[in-house]
Amino acid sequence: MNWLVELKLIKRPLWWIILLFIPCVAFIVHIIMMIDLAKAFGKSTGFAIGLIIVPYIFLPVLAFSDAQYQLEPDPLF
C-alpha cells in the first residue's frame, strides 16, 4: 500500500515516512499503522493482527468488504 495514502487515511503526520526507512523502527511503525488502519474502518484488533501477519489476504478483504471509513474526512484529501 502507498505509504502517503495510508498515512492520510489513518490521520498520522507525513513525517512518519522517515521512520519507515529506519530498520528497527519501521517494524514497530508498520504495526501501529496496520492497527490504526483496521480501526479507521471499524475492524477489530484481531483483524489488525491479520493485516500485520498476512496483508496480502486481509488488505483485499478490507478493500472489497462492506467496511465503511469511520474517521472524519480530511478537507484537503
Structure description:
The structure is a single chain. This protein has 77 residues and is an all-alpha fold. The protein has one domain (3-64). It is 62% helix and 0% strand. The protein has five helices and no strands. The model has no long low-confidence stretch (mean pLDDT 89).
Helical fraction: 55-70%
Helix/strand order: HHHHH
Secondary-structure-derived class: mainly alpha
Strand content: under 5%
Helices and strands in order:
Layout: H1 3-9, H2 16-19, H3 23-40, H4 45-53, H5 55-64
Helix pairs in contact: 3-4, 4-5
Summarize the structure.
The protein has 77 residues and is an all-alpha fold. The protein contains 5 helices and no strands.
Features of this protein?
77 residues; 5 helices; 0% strand
